[in-house]
Structure formats: C-alpha cells, structure tokens
Amino acid sequence: MSPAPSSRARIRPWLVVGDLALAAAWVCAGALVKLLVYGPLGFGGRPEAEVVKVSLSIVYMFLFAWLEAASGGASYNPLTVLAAAVASHGGPAVYLFTAFVRIPAQVIGAVLGVKLIQLTFPNVGKGARLSVGAHHGALAEGLATFMVVMVSVTLKKKEMKSFFMKTWITSIWKNTIHILSSDITGGIMNPASAFAWAYARGDHTTFDHLLVYWLAPLQATLLGVWVVTSLTKPKKIKEQEADENKTKKE
C-alpha cells in the first residue's frame, strides 16, 4: 500500500481510469513475478526464491509508486484511497466518490487483470487462499493492514520529501509484513486483488472472504488513520481541544 496523499482531497474524476489501469497492472505484476521466479529462473521451492521475489517486488513497487505520483494520485489499492479520503477530511462528497466510484473501479480493474493473466498464462495459479479459520484470518489481515497503514500515513504526516526514501521504507515494511502473514491469509492487504482472485475461483461471496479480505482491512485502515492523526495532531490543536474539554467540565 502506497502512502496516502497529505494534501486536502478533492474529487478528480480522471483518477478513476488510472485506478482501473493500475489495479489491473498490479495483479498482473505480482503474478508475473511468481511465474518468473518458479519458472524461467528455476528457483522452485528453494530458500533463494523468497529473496528473489522480494527483490523483484521492491522493483515494481517503485515503478507503481512513480506511476501513482505521475498520474496525480491514482492507486491500485482501495485501502490507499480510503486512507487518503479519511486523512484529508475531504467531506462527504470525497468519501462517497471514493467508496462508490474509485474503489469499484479498482475492483473491476483487478478482475480484468486476473482474467488477462490467466488467459495469457493458464498455469498462473489461483491466488492466495485463507489457511486458517475466518476469525483468525481476519485478525491477521487486520493487524497486517493496521501496521502498514500506520507507517504509510505517518510518513505522509511527516511530509518526507525524498521519493526514494519514502518508497524504500514503505516497500521494505510492506514486504516484511507480507512475509509474516503470507502463510495465514496470503498477506494481500488489498481488497481489490483479493476479490479478483476469489472471483476467478468462485468464492468471492463467502462469509470468510468478506470478513477477512474486506471488513477486517477496511476497519484496520480507519483505525490506523485515526491513531496516527490523533498522535500527530499539531500542538495548538491539542491545546485547543484540552481547553474545550476543560470548559465543558466547568
């Protein structure tokens, strides 16, 4: 998940096309890396395979971060645009545009991307699957998302100017969390990608999928943004709120 924009959000309809295209490209990129590592490169089940996958993942995460910046804010992950909308305090119009236009566009793009990669490479597989109970999986996916969102939003709050450092930190952190949770839920932390692979398998409407890959990460994103915003409030705002609370008590 890329860092959420720090400036005040506004409705930009053209981003919908970028969202759709990036979501499709993202699922294709992830699938191609796995095909490359376990196919032509011939690493198979060797320990080196994970190192190569992470290395290639960091490369394409830099590419997607650049594409997001070049497009003015398009994204492949619903959690990114949700965090941006909430953190920017853009108002009901921005929230509704994000929830009912941008996120559906990302889901459609991801579904199209999965269909394309499966048509091109029939042996690509069927995506990550939940390997534990629904509630255990929801806790794992929610916690993973919360940790990624915390770092992502914090970096934006600090307004780090270096594109390289910002992307390097987020990519390393996200890959670390992905590895830790991959044996449980796949460590997807992207509802659009999770839905696209589940749709291809036919289990996209199950309770387990909705709880683990939608409800848990969405709630974790909202919680993460709230926690970071609360902890990084400017000193003046904190003093004003403290004065208001003191006045109410009196």
From TrEMBL:
<dbReference type="GO" id="GO:0015267">
    <property type="term" value="F:channel activity"/>
</dbReference>
<dbReference type="InterPro" id="IPR023271">
    <property type="entry name" value="Aquaporin-like"/>
</dbReference>
<protein>
    <submittedName>
        <fullName>Aquaporin SIP2-1</fullName>
    </submittedName>
</protein>
<dbReference type="InterPro" id="IPR044226">
    <property type="entry name" value="SIP2-1-like"/>
</dbReference>
<keyword id="KW-1133">Transmembrane helix</keyword>
<keyword id="KW-0677">Repeat</keyword>
<feature type="transmembrane region" description="Helical">
    <location>
        <begin position="176"/>
        <end position="199"/>
    </location>
</feature>
<keyword id="KW-0472">Membrane</keyword>
<feature type="transmembrane region" description="Helical">
    <location>
        <begin position="137"/>
        <end position="155"/>
    </location>
</feature>
<feature type="transmembrane region" description="Helical">
    <location>
        <begin position="20"/>
        <end position="39"/>
    </location>
</feature>
<dbReference type="Pfam" id="PF00230">
    <property type="entry name" value="MIP"/>
</dbReference>
<dbReference type="InterPro" id="IPR000425">
    <property type="entry name" value="MIP"/>
</dbReference>
<dbReference type="GO" id="GO:0016020">
    <property type="term" value="C:membrane"/>
</dbReference>
<feature type="transmembrane region" description="Helical">
    <location>
        <begin position="211"/>
        <end position="231"/>
    </location>
</feature>
<keyword id="KW-0812">Transmembrane</keyword>
